[in-house]
C-alpha cells in the first residue's frame, strides 16, 4: 500500500511565517496534485506549547541560531513557531485536507524537540504514526513537505529505519538552509541510506 506523508505544511513554515522557509508555499499545488496517486494520505503537524524549549525566547539571553543543551541533547534554537492553536500552526489554507486520514502531532513535550514525525529527537517517545502505518499495511511511504533539511529528513530517515520503502519527492519539499548547502547535504544523506529521491513528474506523468 502506497502512502503519502504530508510533513508540517503549516503557515509558520511559509513566507511571512515565524520560521519561514523560502518558497515553502510553492509545494502546495504539487502536493494537492500528488494526493490522488496514493491509497492513503496522512499528515504530521509541528505542535508546540508556548513554553517549548526549542524557542530562543524561552532561554534568557539566547537568540535564534544559538545552540544549547536541552535535557542532554544539543538543541538549535528557533524563533517561536507552530504554537498550539495559533494561526501559524494551522495548515496552509490552500492545502487540500480532504484526504488526510489522520494527523500526528509532534513537538508537544516542552523538554524535547521533534523533527521526525515518528519519534522525538532523543528517540525517547513515539508519536504513534509508525504503528499506525504498520497496522494499515503500509509498505511504501512517500514523504513531502517542510522542511527538507529538518522534518522531512528526519522523518524519512526514521521511516527507512522502520522498514518502509521510503521515497522523498524533492520538488514537493523546501528547506530552511540555515547553512548554504544544507538541502543538498540532506538529500545526499537520505540517498546514502537507500531512500529514493524523485521528482513529482515521475508520479504525475506515470
Ligand atoms: C521544523 C525546525 C523546527 C521542521 C520544525 O518541521 O522542519 N524545523 N521545527
Ligand atoms: Zn518546531
| Residue fraction in strands | 15-25%
CA-based gyration radius: 16 Å
Number of domains: 1
Shape: globular
What summary fits the major beta sheet?
6 strands, parallel
User: Order of SSEs, N→C?
Assistant: EHEEEEHEHEHEH
> For this structure, what is the CATH class?
Alpha Beta
Helix proportion: 10-25%
Structure explained in plain terms:
This protein has 206 residues and is α/β, with parallel strands linked by helices. 21% of the residues lie in helices and 23% in strands. It is built from 5 helices and 8 strands; from the N terminus they run E-H-E-E-E-E-H-E-H-E-H-E-H. A 6-stranded parallel sheet has the order 5-2-1-6-7-8, with helices on both faces. It has a two-stranded antiparallel ribbon with strand order 3-4. The longest helix is centred in the C-terminal third of the chain and has 14 residues, at 148-161. The two termini are 17 Å apart. The mean pLDDT is 98. Bound molecules: pyrazine-2-carboxylic acid and zinc ion. Pyrazine-2-carboxylic acid binds at residues 8, 46, 78, 115, 146-147, 150-151. Residues 8, 46, 78, 115, 146-147, 150-151 line the site of pyrazine-2-carboxylic acid.
Question: SSE layout and pairings?
Answer:
Blueprint: E1 2-7, H1 28-34, E2 40-46, E3 67-70, E4 73-76, E5 100-106, H2 129-135, E6 140-146, H3 148-161, E7 165-174, H4 182-192, E8 196-198, H5 201-204
Parallel strand pairs: 1-2, 1-6, 2-5, 6-7, 7-8
Antiparallel strand pairs: 3-4
Helix pairs in contact: 3-4
